[in-house]
Amino acid sequence: MGRRHDRAPVVVATIAVACLALSACATPPVSIDELLPSAGATAPGSSRPEPGAAAGGDLAPTGQTAALATGLTTPWSIVPLPTGSILLSERDTGRVLERTADGTLRTVGTVAGVVPFGEGGLLGLAALDLGTPYLFAFHTAAEDNRIVRYELTGAPGSYGLGASEVLITGIPKARNHNGGRLAFGPDGMLYATTGDAQRVNLAQDQGSLAGKILRLTPEGAIPADNPFPGSYVYSLGHRNPQGIVFDEQGRLWASELGQNTWDELNRIEAGANYGWPVVEGIGGRPGFVDPVQQWPTSDASPSGLGIVGDTLFMASLRGQRLWAIDVDAPGTSTAYFVRELGRLRDAVAAPDGGLYLLTTNTDANGRPAPDDDRLLAVPLAPRG
User: Fold this and answer.
1) pTM here?
2) How many CB atoms lie within 10 A of CB 289?
């Protein structure tokens, strides 16, 4: 198990973010030279853990998954709303979709300026009500990656995209390693993951927005208490983090795709350096924070990261499985749905105490089944 920081976690007040009320120590940089059809339809997928897996998580999938939406095109992000609707992003079409409580799948709108390019396109979504409800999006444009926000108009079954604002531009883009996940923290700030854009030196460059986790206000300003004055950078030394989530104690977790050896689960703290490209996985190098757990890239290649109770759920691409990890014992994990659902892009807590999953078998690396891609509901129960 990797090293954890000695300081106690900061306890912050919980605010109603992420879902809309629509009815609702800094470390110095180092040189890299050191080197929807029916809601009741079922989808294949058992809840049996991988044989011999180490126990991870208090909760486990149980029973069969249910297909809430099918026929999606390279879906990337899930945003459940308190109205019962679920918003989805499609990477290559640039569309935002709404899956309504009665099972209807419809288009909310198309994010302007999306330029699909390899693993880039319309990526993460997040939602927040600031008196006016907003939908935030991370997307690839012609020259860069950027973060925008739209007024979310209408009501369940008729949501639309209204006026838009660009919050951040100039995030380096590439065919691969774009990051792209968004999440609001309990502090009301927006957190965003960025990849190294296939230029590994940028991850250690505090002046670049690549290979980082960024923190900004909902209006796109730099918070005064960010660890590096005048900078959106919250943490650095990342290769391609595609999952972030906060637990009930306000701690930030991130999943990160490694290169050829180790994928990572990291506990993120302000100003910390997670080592890429000097270190991949647990390295024990001074000045860097080790992951709390690592996996061979063939077993993970993680993307979205969700949490239900004290159990983290990590969607895996190449590994084609769902990993469950106990936040209080993050060095252990259990794999579910191993090679049963294909590549998994996102995992998000469902309002009924279960989990939503997105498959991503229609991208260039997948082998789609006839009804792919799918939004799945996964029931959870305490581990026996």
Assistant:
1) 0.88
2) 22
